[in-house]
Amino acid sequence: MSTQETTTHTDAMREVFGEPISVYTRAQAIEDGQLIDVSTTAREAGIVWPVALTPAAWADCVAWTDETEARKGYTGQSESGRLWDVVWMLSLAVRGALRRGLDASQQPLYFSLMRTPAAGRGVMPRKATLKFMVGPNDDGHPCITVMLPTED
C-alpha cells in the first residue's frame, strides 16, 4: 500500500467512524512484550515482511532454556534452533499462500511443525499448528503475526 493509499484509507475510515479514541501500534505491542519480533531470523528464512509471534506461540514452539534441556536429557535443542523451525515452516506456508494468490479473504492461514513440548519430561516431537495473519504494519506495509490457533 502506498503512502497515498494509506492516507486515503485512513481518511475514509475517520470519515465513517470519527477520530480513534485510542491507538495501540504494533511497535508498542513489541515494546510491551505483547508481540515478539522475529523479523531478523525470518529474513534469513526468506521472509521480507516483518514477523512477530505472540508470547503464547513463542512459549509453545520456541521457548527452551538450559533447565528444559537438562530435564529432557540433553536433546540438542535450543531456542535459536526452535525459532528457525518456526520461521522456516512459516516461510514455506507464506510462499504457498502467495502462489495461490494470497488475499484478505483467505485468512487466517495455518501451518504445522513438529516440536518437542517444553513442558513435562517427554522428548517425542509432537505436531503443533500455528495460525498466521498478514496485515498492515504501523506504516501500512505488510507484516505477519504468528499465533496459536485459539488466539485472535
Secondary-structure element pattern, one letter each: HHEHEHHHEEE
SS-based class: alpha+beta
The proportion of residues in beta strands is: 15-25%
Query: What is the global morphology?
Result: elongated
Characterise this structure.
It is a single chain. The longest helix has 21 residues. Helix content is 41%, strand content 19%. A five-stranded mixed sheet has the order 1-2-5-4-3. The mean pLDDT is 89. By secondary structure, it is of the alpha+beta class.
Keywords, please?
152 residues; alpha+beta; five-stranded mixed sheet; 6 helices; 5 strands; 19% strand; elongated
Draw up the topology in text.
Layout: H1 3-17, H2 26-32, E1 36-37, H3 39-44, E2 51-53, H4 55-61, H5 66-72, H6 79-99, E3 109-115, E4 126-136, E5 142-147
Parallel strand pairs: 2-5
Antiparallel strand pairs: 1-2, 3-4, 4-5
Quick recap:
By secondary structure, the chain is an alpha+beta fold. The chain is built from six helices and five strands, in the order H-H-E-H-E-H-H-H-E-E-E. About 40% of the residues lie in helices and about 20% in strands.
